[in-house]
Amino acid sequence: MSCSSENHSFSFYSLEMHRDGHGSTQDPPAMVSRRPPTVMCYICGREYGTASITIHEKQCLAKWKFENDQLPPNARRPEPTKPQILTEAAREIQGSKAGNYNLDAANEAAFQAAQSQYIPCQKCGRTFQPESISLHQKHCQGYKALKRSAKT
């Protein structure tokens, strides 16, 4: 590449540094970095790549079942079900139509499904994962703590 005001040859980056000395207002071409598409797990709410989400969901559901079985009978929850939009998306990922579905809608449905797994505290109303709720409730002061923090 050469400078338009001089007859010197430069590499791309050297030319940009050289142009800065001339007061050039041209910006160097922006390098666009794209994040690979991710799919949210409907059980835990974490994001995974399109190739590994099916493997993760099987393992995550097995872990969920094990943890749910460890809870007292009155605290056990029904097994989470995969939202319909995710079932359709999974078929399209595995089939030849990959990428023809709305990834944002699928992730929103998975997020809502994961959030529905949370359990509200009986004292303050905040929601927690099942393994965290018992620890929270031991220390929760209920609405008094919320009122106190609102005053400060």
TrEMBL record:
<keyword id="KW-0479">Metal-binding</keyword>
<keyword id="KW-0677">Repeat</keyword>
<dbReference type="InterPro" id="IPR026319">
    <property type="entry name" value="ZC2HC1A/B-like"/>
</dbReference>
<keyword id="KW-0862">Zinc</keyword>
<feature type="domain" description="C2HC/C3H-type">
    <location>
        <begin position="117"/>
        <end position="146"/>
    </location>
</feature>
<keyword id="KW-0863">Zinc-finger</keyword>
<dbReference type="Pfam" id="PF13913">
    <property type="entry name" value="zf-C2HC_2"/>
</dbReference>
<feature type="domain" description="C2HC/C3H-type">
    <location>
        <begin position="37"/>
        <end position="66"/>
    </location>
</feature>
<dbReference type="GO" id="GO:0008270">
    <property type="term" value="F:zinc ion binding"/>
</dbReference>
<dbReference type="InterPro" id="IPR049899">
    <property type="entry name" value="Znf_C2HC_C3H"/>
</dbReference>
<protein>
    <submittedName>
        <fullName>Zinc finger protein 474-like</fullName>
    </submittedName>
</protein>
